[in-house]
Amino acid sequence: MQELVDALADRLDRHVLVDDSQLALIAYSAQRGQIDEVRVSAILRRAASAEVRQALLAQGIASATEPMRTRAEAALKMDSRLCVPIRSNGQPLAYLWILDSESTLAPSAIEAAAATAERIGGLLVRERRFHAFLSAREQDLVRQLLTGETHLAAGAARELHELELLPLGRPVAAVLVRVVLDNESAAVAPLADAAPQLAAVRRHAPNERLAGAAVCGDLLLLVANDEPRRLAEFAQALPSIVRQFESERVVVGYGEPSPLPQATGSRRQAAYALELALRLPSLGNVVGWRDLGVYRLLETFRRGGPTREALHPALAELERTRGGAVLVETLSVYLERGGSVQAAARQLAIDRTTLYGRLRRIEQITGVDLSSGEDRLALHLSLRLRALAVDEESGR
Fold this sequence. Notes:
By secondary structure, the chain is an alpha+beta fold.
């Protein structure tokens, strides 16, 4: 496309620019002659401003089927220009623009611009079809990954890696998003195709490696993110990205990171977090598996017994830390003694200053709040059940 734009600019000795249907910049030529402030702003911002977009749409560019001249808008510091609409199936696809403040473009130049626009339209249609194919394939692979069939999951993980969507060597977290139209009736807006939502998420989070699909009416994202704080920030941003109307309630549940071929476990956690967020509004609209506290343990009993994945993540984080065994013992004694610093320090044979230091370190390492009854209950139960817990994968 850039070659077509440059060739037309050379032929006409004019600056040429191509926008998509929303007036976001696609391509532009090197500067030739004077350009107005609107053109400079569009190049710097990669899109027309809202005021410029409104003014041009008011002049009828969206319904134009032939090249047209747009009027100058002095208040916007916008000169007159030639607009060549690029359409597909009767809908605006893009616009080719040539500045023409003096209306000096010859009919042959306008014909050349129209011919170039037609060729650009063909390229854009092919590109759109290719992206639609890739999006459909992406969603198929994500669904295959979550079938629970080992050979299908392994193949899907490899192909998602080959498509540079998700890395094989990095854990991924499942994130489920549901749009509720009406809180009272809990009416849901089922999602059939996730392509528009995936595009919006990628625009707002360009640094995240992710893949997604529409699964059972929800938007399911697999995100290569194993940093708890960053994952939480990503999940918290999703409602504003996905919401289309103020009346909608967007609910998000997300699981713990796991190896890509075993993403079913994280998806199950995300589904449970989403279910609780819908049933217990006090939890908020964005809930992670690690936020569920005692509810996480209750879920594992519902499914047959405690598993290590249900224990509070703080325990694993402490065990991985140098000197973690001492911190786990300190936490256990502190909770067994009902949060009494004096009693815990006496049993551990340390002074209270040392105990306070250990408790602060536990909070810093894990992010828990030992003044929170919810956190203390979940930690205490996890410590009690740790000896009974089995590994989700091995069953031991």
